[in-house]
Amino acid sequence: MYTRRTVKAELGEIYDVELEADLLQANRNIAEENEELLRKHGVTAIDVMGSTGSGKTTLIEGLVERLKERYRVTVFDGDLTTTIDSDLIAMHGVEVVQINTGRGCHLDANLVRKALQSIDFKGVDILLIENVGNLICPADFPLGSEKRIVVISVTEGPYTVVKHPFMFIDADVVVINKMDLAEAMGVDVQKLEEDVHTVNPGARVVRTNCRSGLGLEEVVKALGL
Amino acid sequence: MHEFSMTERLIEAVLHEAEKRGAKRVVEVRLSIGKLMFLGLEQVKFAYATLVRGTILEGSKLMIEEEKGIVRCEACGYEGGIQYVDDPAYHISFPTLRCPRCGDIVSIVAGRECMVRGVKLVV
Question: Of A21, A137, A165, which has the smallest distance from its Cβ to B116's Cβ?
Answer without folding.
Answer: A21
